[in-house]
Specification:
Blueprint lengths: L1 H10 L4 E6 L2 E5 H11 L4 E6 L2 E9 L3 H10 L4 E6 L3 H6 L8 E7 L18 E6 L7 E7 L4 E7 L4 H8 L3 E5 H4 L5 H7 L3 E4 L9 H9 L12 H18 L10 E2 L7 E2 L1 H7 L13 H5 L5 H12 L5 H16 L1 H11 L5 H9 L5 H22 L5 H11 L3 H10 L20 H11 L1 H16 L5 E5 L3 E7 L3 H5 L2 H6 L1 E5 L3 E5 L1 H34 L1 H27 L5 E3 L4 E6 L2 H9 L8 E4 L11 E5 L6 H17 L7 E5 L3 E5 L12 H15 L5 E5 L7 H19 L2 E5 L15 E11 L2 E10 L7 H8 L3 H19 L2 H7 L5 H9 L5 H8 L8 H16 L2
Parallel strand pairs: 1-5, 7-10, 9-12, 10-11, 13-23, 18-22, 21-25, 21-26, 23-24, 24-25
Antiparallel strand pairs: 1-2, 2-4, 3-4, 5-6, 7-8, 8-9, 14-15, 15-17, 16-17, 19-20, 19-22, 26-27
Helix pairs in contact: 8-9, 12-24, 13-24, 14-16, 14-24, 15-16, 16-18, 16-24, 17-24, 19-23, 29-30, 31-32
């Protein structure tokens, strides 16, 4: 047995081997030690190898899914090894022969299909990276969700590889060996961690890719799917080869690979995606993410499609507006929307049921899910059929109408109302569907009644009222009559031919008939035959299901699209969102914009309502490019929220959703960059400031005129004048070279002088109000510039000791006096970039300290007219004394 285990393990070195022994999956050696730690199960031992104990642990077969889920969640891969022959055959070979076993499936994070191992609302992608040296387009990615059949491919590059991978967010990325160990790409795979694994380069061979793809899809050539580059063919081939490797002899019903055109979706780099917390927060939680705030879907497929649209917003205004038309229509037709959602709530996840069936892992409930799903689809079609639909919904209706309704009706006739989980449990075929099955069930379940009916028929035929049909372990079923009725049973040749004598007793005689013997055999085998018939029916229904796979998948996708459109309509109604105007211009004007996540959080906390703010980065009159806003203001004033909300509104608009604003005009953004927040990357030897600079460099090197750039506190991680210099130069570069729409938040108030130098730069600030030494944050954005950051006040609010706060105030006063006396101004004057600010400072009149203090002490809102007049006279006297 151990020889067999070692042989199979050597063929699967990168997987934990679940070795079937009776009712358990056993693990041995290092596999046992790893599984014991990962699963928290007892590590035992069994037998010895080279004089040392063999570590062993095991899990029950019936609970294997739970343990698989834990292992897959931790990034492990599992090879499931089953018995592949009858133990009786092994015994025929000798007493020491071992039952043949082999790996029937490799379970990996990207190839699972079981409901218990999958999150209903999340896609489960396996991705393959293809590379062709020397080609114009040398990199490509192909990704498959084996649980739904989704199959897509797109070109990429070394520079944007990490961004494209994180956009799809695969559970598993397979990479050719030479590429995986390429030092230029190692940083990407280090970030991905266990998600990325090397595979033999032969799986990705572009020369053999066409034949592999054609063989898998049973076509003469893959050219009918579209024109693919060599790198794309390599990636597609690698994905298919990995599916074949992991699924062994089974084939999932994959859709034909669909090519994603470059530039068809909004480019959001990895740092931006993380900073904006689109699908997960920085801590990795779904709660608190934008997706969680948006999701009003009622189906698993709809939830997955919503996440896909959120992470891949469109860049074509025509497609965007088609989606918005669907949302608008359902928002206006409230009753229609409610009726659709009521039907969709009962629609099962058809693509995942279809995939399990095709992989021979499904059961009767999966067939039932298809039947219920197609019934729901028909109801959805009936609801929409009479409505005046926009193009997007009309297209989905066509896909729904193409569902095989005859097959749905067949399933309805064939399947019972209550379905077991496993096909081996039987009783899933409806009574009346198959005559032989009904007969076998009757014999199995009602053998006494069947025998009683035969007994009654024989009594009527022979006239012997004492005739009985009995049973014992020796004779089986037999007919018994008293001795004085023996002549009736064998008195004639015809009777003798029918009633076969079996046994003579002192007072009775026993007979059988051909009919009774046949019935006995049927009764004995009825249960087995009934199950056999049901399994044959299941296989026939399964074959019919697979033949309709494309139509079922297309219909399910249409239901998901309707679910998303209806969910976004419900979101817009409940959260008071507006329809954005999306076009090819460079406009970016948002009136009354709000942060979708923060607004909902404030409402849940019963706090103050969210303060809406405008943002206008549209080109000024006569300008060819969008504007840049230089945002200053205090800590805790709401700068980061304002930055993020505008980026999120752009994403929502381009995914086809209404947006949290009173109005919005978005000229399509092709690239979105966000540098908000601070973090280090110690594993790669990067400080917080280095990470900030790397991300800023990526923005400045890639942003074009259609980009939207959100930058917060650039240069704050280093010395003041170093940081100010970098921030200053970055703004100039954004204005002159990138020429993009941007919001640049900073605490370097000296930079506000740039508004006189750069035509498209505008100063805006977060407004505050001081009150008796405290600061009140208004969270309002207005024109102008802040002259201080109120950091000491924020420190006091945070609970710093009073002594620290007072000492900070004193130090701040000294530093400010130093600036006033010209020390800081002279330092700034050493930098040519800042000469404008230095000249302004030099030109300022010297203030009268007493006059300044008197003005500062005034509270006009609290003064009577007489008090105001008296104060004015005092100020005049002070002014005259200068």
């Amino acid at each position: 047995m151990m020889e067999q285990f070692i042989e199979i393990k050597q063929a699967n070195p990168d997987s934990l081997l679940f070795y079937r022994m009776g009712d358990f999956y056993e693990l041995f050696f290092q596999d046992a030690e790893i599984a014991s730690r990962a699963l928290g199960i007892t590590l035992t031992k069994r037998g010895k190898l080279n004089g040392e104990d063999i570590p062993m642990c095991g899990v029950p077969v019936h609970a294997a899914d739970d343990y698989l889920q834990k292992l897959i969640g931790q990034g492990y891969r599992v090879a499931v090894c089953e018995q592949v022959e009858d133990p009786a055959e092994a015994r025929k070979r000798g007493s020491k022969s071992v039952v043949k076993r082999d790996v029937v499936r490799l379970v990996t994070p990207g190839t699972i299909t079981e409901d218990r191992l999958l999150a209903p609302s999340e896609a489960n992608y396996m991705m393959a990276l293809g590379r062709v040296k020397g080609a114009e387009h040398s990199y490509a990615l192909a990704w498959i969700d084996i649980s739904t059949g989704t199959f897509r491919v797109a070109e990429t590059s070394a520079d944007r590889l990490l961004t494209d991978v994180l956009r799809v967010d695969p559970r598993e990325l397979i990479v050719p060996d030479p590429v995986f160990y390429d030092p230029d790409l190692r940083p990407v795979f280090d970030v991905l961690g266990r998600t990325a694994t090397p595979q033999p380069a032969t799986l990705f061979d572009s020369a053999a890719a066409s034949s592999r793809i054609a063989r898998f899809f049973d076509v003469a050539t893959p050219d009918s799917f579209g024109q693919f580059s060599r790198a794309e063919l390599s990636a597609i081939s690698g994905a298919i080869a990995y599916v074949e490797k992991t699924q062994i002899s089974e084939r999932p019903p994959l859709a034909r690979p669909e090519r994603e055109e470059s530039g068809a979706s909004l480019f959001i780099d990895a740092a931006t995606r993380a900073n904006l917390e689109l699908t997960r927060t920085l801590s990795g939680s779904r709660d608190g993410s934008l997706l969680k705030a948006l999701d009003r879907t009622v189906t698993g497929g709809g939830a997955r499609l919503l996440a896909e649209r959120l992470t891949s917003p469109l860049t074509d205004p025509v497609e965007i507006n088609a989606r918005l038309d669907a949302v608008s229509m359902l928002l206006a037709e409230t009753r229609l929307c409610e009726a659709l959602r009521a039907v969709l709530k009962g629609a099962p996840d058809m693509p995942r049921a279809l995939s399990r069936l095709a992989l021979n892992r499904g059961g009767p409930r999966d067939l039932g899910a298809l039947q219920a799903g197609m019934t729901a689809a028909r109801q959805v079609f009936d609801v929409l059929d009479q409505a005046l639909l926009p193009d997007d919904l009309r297209t989905t209706c066509k896909a729904i109408s193409a569902l095989p309704q005859e097959f749905a009706a067949h399933l309805d006739r064939a399947l019972a109302d209550e379905l077991p989980l496993l096909k081996r449990d039987g009783s899933f075929v409806r009574a009346g569907y198959n005559a032989e099955l009904d007969e076998m069930r009757a014999l199995r379940d009602q053998s006494r009644r069947v025998i009683a009916e035969m007994e009654r028929a024989l009594i009527e035929e022979t006239g012997i009222r004492s005739l009985k049909i009995r049973h014992n372990n020796v004779l089986g079923y037999y007919i018994e009559v008293t001795a004085n009725h023996a002549e009736i049973m064998n008195g004639t040749d015809e009777a003798k031919a029918r009633f076969i004598h079996r046994q003579t007793m002192a007072s009775a005689m026993r007979f059988t008939t051909t009919e009774l013997a046949g019935l006995e055999t049927k009764i004995a085998n009825a249960a087995d035959r009934a199950l056999q018939i049901e399994l044959e029916i299941f296989d026939a229904l399964l074959a019919e299901t697979v033949s309709h796979a494309d139509a079922i998948r297309a219909g399910a996708d249409a239901l998901s699209q309707i679910d998303v459109a209806a969910a976004l309509a419900v979101l817009a109604a409940s959260e008071n969102y507006c329809r954005p105007q999306v076009d090819d211009s460079l406009a970016f004007r948002i009136d009354g914009g709000r942060h979708p996540v923060v607004e909902q959080a404030l409402r849940r906390q019963l706090a103050d309502p969210f303060v809406a703010n405008d943002c206008d980065l549209s080109p000024d009159d006569g300008a060819k490019n969008g504007a840049i806003w230089l945002l200053t203001g205090p800590n805790m004033g709401g700068k980061s929220t304002f930055l993020r909300q505008n980026a999120l509104i752009a994403i929502l608009a381009q995914m086809g959703s209404f947006v949290p604003a009173s109005s919005a005009h978005i000229g399509v953004v092709d690239r979105l960059f966000s540098r908000v927040g601070a973090s280090d990357d110690l594993a790669r030897g990067r400080s917080t400031f280095m990470v900030e600079m790397v991300e800023t460099a990526a923005i400045l090197n890639q942003a074009g005129e259609r980009a939207l750039v959100i930058l917060d506190e650039i240069g704050r991680g280093t010395a003041t004048f170093d940081g100010l210099s970098i921030a200053w130069a970055a703004v100039e570069y954004l204005h002159e070279k990138n020429r993009c729409r941007a919001i640049f938040a900073t605490h370097f108030h000296e930079m506000t002088a740039l508004s006189d130098k750069l035509a498209r730069l505008h100063n805006v600030t977060m407004r505050v109000k001081e009150w008796e030494g405290d600061v009140v944050f208004l969270h309002e954005v207005g024109k102008g510039a802040a002259d201080r950051s109120y950091g000491v006040q924020v420190a006091r609010l945070a609970g710093l000791p009073d002594a620290v706060v007072e000492r900070a105030r004193a130090v701040l006063r000294q530093l400010e006096e130093g600036e006033t006396s010209g020390k800081a101004a002279r330092l700034v004057d050493d930098l040519p970039l800042f000469s404008i600010a230095a000249r302004r400072e030099a030109e300022k009149p010297v203030a009268n300290d007493a006059l300044v203090e008197a003005v500062t002490a005034l509270h006009p809102d609290e003064m009577s007219p007489r008090e105001a007049l008296e104060a004015l006279y005092r100020l005049k006297e002070l002014s005259a004394s200068r």
